[in-house]
Amino acid sequence: MSPSLLALPGNLRQGVIVGRAGIERHAETITKQSIRAVGAVASKKLVNSVTSTSSLQGKDKSVTKCGTREPQGYWIEHRRKPGKVPAWPTFKEILRKWAASKGLTFSDSALWFIAKKIRAQGYQAREPFKKAALAMGAGARNILKVSLGGKIGK
Asked: How far is it, in rounded angstroms, from Cα 23 to Cα 142?
């Protein structure tokens, strides 16, 4: 626990701890909703891997980070440039899961054409993590305000 947090009176310190935990849960919820909203749920592995942590950075500055260690998170957030794709047996299964998540069924030859298009054109960034970060401010502020018993200003 940080020295700044330890210096707070007991009830206020507890409020900050509860508020941080609430903000972490809120960040995870908003991020998962954002991933679903952009349609990045082929295997649900990305959604299920979202985690958040809070820490102090600098003088009395609390930061909550939310993200994933799954490699597809990077490509969905940014974009995939045209170029090499995974080996066909592996990529075919990835594309099958993607199609199934959309309620679609494709033959292997159709999946091959999708793979060729991705290899040739890549795909655009969907930025679910950026969108979630922009959307969570008001909710996080309300959580902290409630946890501190309304003791923060506007």
From this structure: 9
The enclosing H or E element of 62 equals: strand 62-67
Q: How far apart are CA 94 and CA 96, in angstroms?
A: 5
Per-residue pLDDT of the chain (154 residues; tens, 9 = 90+): 555 555 556 667 677 778 888 888 999 999 999 999 998 877 788 889 999 887 766 666 677 888 888 888 888 899 989 998 889 999 898 888 878 877 888 999 999 999 999 999 998 999 999 999 889 888 888 887 888 776 555 5
Percent of the chain that is helix, strand, coil (3-state, to 5): 60, 10, 30
State how beta strands 62-67 and 51-56 pair: antiparallel
The residues facing 55 across adjacent strands are: 63
Measured CA angle at 139 (ends 63, 78), to 5 deg: 60
Q: Where are the domains of the chain?
A: 1-79+124-154, 82-122
Q: Read off the tokens for 31.
A: 């991020």
Tokens standing for 80?
Answer: 């995939």
